[in-house]
């Protein structure tokens, strides 16, 4: 099963798909775990490696806050059999998906950068960090 990295199509609100791909390519060129994943997705071969391919897929959202109730059909199809969702960042993990329940395991990671939100969601303070694991529902 591939690893999927959702990304915005437009750069007005977040860094877009081409920038994601460029960053991943440069990271793969530096070596490490991304090398085989990037080679597999670029040449279509999976025979020479046991690594899992990494795909950048348009999320269908127009903002950095990814509301997983409304995603592109491409992302929905690619993530259909996902066994883990990792949501990183205040917009993705807190604003739009904090109380979302998924059919697979979920990990929600964020730093709270708003005092009102910190008090409301976690009964905490600004700059507190959230690491919330949820088993499949």
Automatic annotation (TrEMBL):
Its cofactor is Ni(2+). It holds the Pfam family ARMT1-like_dom. Residues 56-121 form the Damage-control phosphatase ARMT1-like metal-binding domain. This is Damage-control phosphatase ARMT1-like metal-binding domain-containing protein.
């Amino acid at each position: 099963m591939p690893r999927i990295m959702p990304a915005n199509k437009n750069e007005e609100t977040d860094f877009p798909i081409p920038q994601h791909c460029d960053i991943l390519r440069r990271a793969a060129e530096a070596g490490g775990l991304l090398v085989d994943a990037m080679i597999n997705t670029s040449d279509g071969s999976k025979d020479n490696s046991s690594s899992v391919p990494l795909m950048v897929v348009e999320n269908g959202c127009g903002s950095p806050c990814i509301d997983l109730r409304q995603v592109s059909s491409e992302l929905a199809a690619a993530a259909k059999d996902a066994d883990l969702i990792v949501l990183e960042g205040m917009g993705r993990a807190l604003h739009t998906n904090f109380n979302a329940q998924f059919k697979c395991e979920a990990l929600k990671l964020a730093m709270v950068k708003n005092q009102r939100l910190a008090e409301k969601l976690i009964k905490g303070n600004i700059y507190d960090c959230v690491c919330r694991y949820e088993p499949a529902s």
